[in-house]
Amino acid sequence: MAFNIVSSRYARSLFDLSLERNVLDRINSDMSLINTLCLENPILNIILKNPNINIGKKKNIVKDLLEKRVDSLTLSFILLLIDKRRVILLKEIANEFVGFCNKYKGIKVATLISANKIDELTKQRIIKLFEKQFNCTIKLEEKENPSLLGGFKIMIEDMIYDASILNQLNSLKKSFAKNIYEKGY
User: Fold this and answer.
1) Smallest Cα–Cα separation from 94: which of 105, 81, 110?
2) Do 91 and 35 contact (CB within 8 A), yes or no?
């Protein structure tokens, strides 16, 4: 819980500073890149989280890796996190920052989970439907889950819209379990 508060505060500070300097989109793309790096590169995570590795070495690694790929504000921010020994929160800070940007721009992230790949026309119809319902822009992330059998689930914030065959089968199963007819034979 305390890490969540700390990462949120750092993300809010970076968000406010990037707004003030009019580089919000650039820093947002940098934070998305950092989030991707943290997910795809476990060695980098181990290096950054290891307290036995010298702060100077960590800074040099980050500079070599990111200096030409990210904005100077992003690089300075990460170096500050290393100095303050908060770099272990980098992924959470990046996620929080992207969340602040999405909220500022009126974007909601929806996760579409389906049994199979969904065609572009269907995705566009789903996006338009939910954009109209939530009165905002929808950014769609896709995941595949063959256990759904067919149909799809959409998760937006704390709401789940379940139109999967698995859900329909479970509903039928529950209704058969509550059979109102007596077993006479």
Assistant:
1) 81
2) yes
**CB-based contacts of 41, cutoff 8 Å, min separation 6:** none
Among residues 76, 59, 75, 56, the alpha carbon closest in space to that of 67 is found at: 75
Q: How far is CA 102 from the centre of its chain?
A: 11
> What is the SS3 assignment for 111?
strand
Domain covering 2-103, topology: Peroxidase; domain 1 (1.10.520)
pLDDT value at residue 6: 92
Q: What's the one-letter identity of residue 70?
A: V
Which residue shows structure tokens 């990460």?
A: 78
Task: Give the model confidence (pLDDT) of 76-118 as tens digits.
Answer: 999 999 999 999 999 999 999 999 999 999 999 889 888 888 8
> Token pair for residue 135?
């009165």
pTM: 0.76
Task: Pick one of 3.40.30, 3.90.25, 3.30.450, 3.40.50 as the CATH number of 106-177.
Answer: 3.40.30
Which band of pLDDT confidence, cut at 50, 70 and 90, is reported for residue 159? confident
Per-domain boundaries in the chain: 2-103, 106-177
Q: Smallest Cα–Cα separation from 3: which of 88, 84, 65?
A: 88
Residue 71: C-alpha distances to residues 15, 31, 108 (Å):
14, 10, 25
| Residue indicated by tokens 């997910």 | 39
